[in-house]
UniProtKB/TrEMBL annotation:
Molecular function per GO: DNA binding; ribosomal large subunit binding; single-stranded RNA binding
Encoding gene (name): hslR
Record has Flavoprotein as a keyword: no
Domain RNA-binding S4 per the UniProt entry, residue ranges: 4-69
Domain of life: Bacteria
Pfam families in UniProt: S4
Statement: the UniProt record of this protein carries the keyword RNA-binding: yes
Keywords noted in UniProt: DNA-binding, RNA-binding, Stress response
Name of this chain's protein: Heat shock protein 15
Organism: Achromobacter veterisilvae
GO aspect biological process, one term: cellular response to heat
């Protein structure tokens, strides 16, 4: 087997839980093959570059092997290798998230009550 459908490869490589989810994401334009929009029936072969936008920095992987069978995760990991620039982008994004956490996480007591809002307005001089 030298070529396989894109949706089937994404499913076998464990990027998506089902083939129908892979088809939906491909249809939304979140999967590119060799930097071009693709259709689910597009065939991929070893050496193709696939960009998958599941998280903030897009995951860019090179197809190493093809398989039509969904196997265990260690076997699925052997179907692709992540490009060095993709690894660097993911590490940069993780570092940025670590350095600048979500502002809402600092609120421990939840939303201010009516009394709290009145005190805030009083401090602001309104």
């Amino acid at each position: 087997m030298e070529k396989i459908r894109l949706d089937k490869w994404l499913w076998a490589a464990r990027f998506y839980k089902t083939r129908s989810l892979a088809v939906q994401e491909i249809g939304k334009g979140r999967v590119l093959v060799n930097d071009q929009p693709a259709k689910p029936a597009r065939e991929v072969a070893p050496g193709d570059l696939v960009a998958i936008r599941k998280e903030d920095p897009a995951l860019r992987v090179r197809v190493v092997a093809v398989s039509g069978v969904r196997g265990p995760a260690p076997m699925a990991r052997q179907l692709y290798e992540e490009t060095p620039d993709s690894v660097a982008a993911r590490e940069r994004a993780a570092e940025m998230r670590r350095l600048a956490p979500e502002p809402a996480l600092g609120i421990e007591a939840g939303r201010p009550t009516k009394r709290d809002r009145r005190l805030i307005d009083l401090m602001r001089g309104k």
